[in-house]
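Work Package 4 report. The design task specified in the project plan requires that, given a folded chain encoded as structure tokens, an amino acid be chosen for each position. We show below one input record used in the internal validation round.
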């Protein structure tokens, strides 16, 4: 008996639900657990023996009295909503349950209180948001039309009805094609067919030079790369604030193409960049699950490959795969962004100064450790490991450059395939054959080598943080190269070209980030080059001027090199380090 009483007492005290025992006639509190004390905002000595009306103020006394009368009549109360105010003035929404029970021969009320304050506030905020949206929708001067992924009318505001000459009930549920002619749809620049062309394999391109492109019968699988969580979409706002670029990109693709892809036996596949934590992966998983439910795609229809391109993510690869359990199929070694992330995170450490970018190959210790750990982690979890992109690209007008590029890429892919990677990236279509040939030589007829677990790999924090580079130096050529690449890439980016061939290398935002980050760090550390030149603001400014002049001399009259040079100077010379060059440059895009 005593053992049973101890068990009950322990359950009562440790319950996460607020529990109170009262004496019915005088309404005095006989017992109360810690959860109830926290909810009511009292100490135990203040609560025991007190009458309930003395410690809380019920918003609806008549309702509480009705609960009491029902209890005295032997009726149980379950989940009745109520509200009370604590002594400190805080209002609490709660669900009340209770029953009259006999304790030591005397009747007592046992009451539980479930705090639902946050849920009620969230619900109220949602209702207010819905009301604001509805008011804006109904009163907007512009016509607003909402259509489904199947391109049927879902809703239309009064202005839209006036412009189109239809009543709302005449349109809702009808296909758009019942209202607009084919020629009208084809002339509409935002018609959904423009977004579906790749899904339906009807994508074509005719360039101003007269070149015509169309898809082959057999094409690669479409994988969409949304923007990272750090970027926003300034052209679309919610309550006056720009929305997340990640949600904007993923949302458009899922809404317009998700169901069509699933119906074709495929699915919406994503390539997720810039993550530093498993919590960001969890957020993506929540987005995917919500989309699957709302769009009726089916559980697990959305799949993704995650770029491991930050040094923090390298420490959480297992956790990232776990968070995306129903959606993850691969991790990708984003080598250039990984280098950028490493420089950024350790930029203030005087012991950490990396040599020229050209000396940071995939065989230096910390890069080798990162890729080997990635393969081991993926294969232990049944996921694919995807290799990175060698920057060398062929030049169809220069056989010698092409020969060097093909040789370097083959060497890179041989290393990756032997390390256990299941696939890889290339920077140019002409390199697909080489990568395929190398990987086929290792895989044979197998689609992957996930069964190769790499149990012999022993990589820990020490290896990931081993930044020593044997024989590494900072040279004048390296500093000038970083300045030149940074300016040329920024000018390209401002013109809307996100990947640019510069000096026979494919440069993208990641390589430009490495260039400007190294210059910034060398300047902050007053690094001395191998030739004896100290990296100073005056020295960097001179290189910016010279590289800008050289680039402009070889460029068309209409270019943005002056603006690119100004941006690079701000990025490299500012005392405060900019987290991402694209955030600063984004403000210069119209």
């Amino acid at each position: 008996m005593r053992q049973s009483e101890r068990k009950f007492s322990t359950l009562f005290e440790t319950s996460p639900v607020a529990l109170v025992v009262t004496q019915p006639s005088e309404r005095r509190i006989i017992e109360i657990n810690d959860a109830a004390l926290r909810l009511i905002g009292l100490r135990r000595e203040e609560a025991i023996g007190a009458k309930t009306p003395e410690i809380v103020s019920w918003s609806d006394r008549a309702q509480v009295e009705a609960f009491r009368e029902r209890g005295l009549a032997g009726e149980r109360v379950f989940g009745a909503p109520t509200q009370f105010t604590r002594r400190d003035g805080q209002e609490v929404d709660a669900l009340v349950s209770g029953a009259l029970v006999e304790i030591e021969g005397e009747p007592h009320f046992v009451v539980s209180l479930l705090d639902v304050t946050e849920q009620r506030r969230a619900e109220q905020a949602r209702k207010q948001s819905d009301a604001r949206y509805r008011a804006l929708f109904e009163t907007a001067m512009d016509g607003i039309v909402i259509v489904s992924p199947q391109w049927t009318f879902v809703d239309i505001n009064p202005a839209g009805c006036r412009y189109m000459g239809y009543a709302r009930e005449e349109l809702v549920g009808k296909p758009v094609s019942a209202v607009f002619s084919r020629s009208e749809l084809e002339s509409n620049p935002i018609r959904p067919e423009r977004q579906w062309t790749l899904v339906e394999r009807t994508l074509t391109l005719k360039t101003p030079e007269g070149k015509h492109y169309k898809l082959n019968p057999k094409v690669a699988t479409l994988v969409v790369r949304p923007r990272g969580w750090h970027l926003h979409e300034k052209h679309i706002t919610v309550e006056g604030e720009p929305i997340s670029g990640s949600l904007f990109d993923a949302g458009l693709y899922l809404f317009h193409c998700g169901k069509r892809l699933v119906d074709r036996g495929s699915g919406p596949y994503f390539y997720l960049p810039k993550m530093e934590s498993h919590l960001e992966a969890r957020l993506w998983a929540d987005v995917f699950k919500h989309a699957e439910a709302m769009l009726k795609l089916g559980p697990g229809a959305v799949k993704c490959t995650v770029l491991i391109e930050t040094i923090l993510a390298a420490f959480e690869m297992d956790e990232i795969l776990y968070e995306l359990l129903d959606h993850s199929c691969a991790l990708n070694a984003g080598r250039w962004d990984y280098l950028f992330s490493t420089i950024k995170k350790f930029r203030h450490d005087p012991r950490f100064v990396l040599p020229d970018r050209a000396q940071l190959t995939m065989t230096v210790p910390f890069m080798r450790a990162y890729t080997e750990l990635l393969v081991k982690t993926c294969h232990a979890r049944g996921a694919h490991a995807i290799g990175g992109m060698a920057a060398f690209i062929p030049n169809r007008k220069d056989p010698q450059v092409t020969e060097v590029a093909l040789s370097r890429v083959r060497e890179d892919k041989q290393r990756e395939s032997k390390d256990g990677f299941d696939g890889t990236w290339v920077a140019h279509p002409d390199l697909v054959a080489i990568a395929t040939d190398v990987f086929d030589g290792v895989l044979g007829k197998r689609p992957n080598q996930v069964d190769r677990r790499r149990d012999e790999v022993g990589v820990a924090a020490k290896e990931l943080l081993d930044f020593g580079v044997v024989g590494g130096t900072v040279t004048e050529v390296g500093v000038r190269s970083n300045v030149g690449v940074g300016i040329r890439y920024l000018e390209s980016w401002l013109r809307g070209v996100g990947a640019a061939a510069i000096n026979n290398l494919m440069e993208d935002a990641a390589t430009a980030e490495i260039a400007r980050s190294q210059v910034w760090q060398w300047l902050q550390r007053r690094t001395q080059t191998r030739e004896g030149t100290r990296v100073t603001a005056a020295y960097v400014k001179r290189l910016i001027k010279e590289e800008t002049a050289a680039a402009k001399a070889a460029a068309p009259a209409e270019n943005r090199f002056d603006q690119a040079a100004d941006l690079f100077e701000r990025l490299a010379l500012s005392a405060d380090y900019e987290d991402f060059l694209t955030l600063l440059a984004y403000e210069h895009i119209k």
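Confidence is low (pLDDT under 50) at residues 189-194. Validation will be extended to a larger panel in the next phase.
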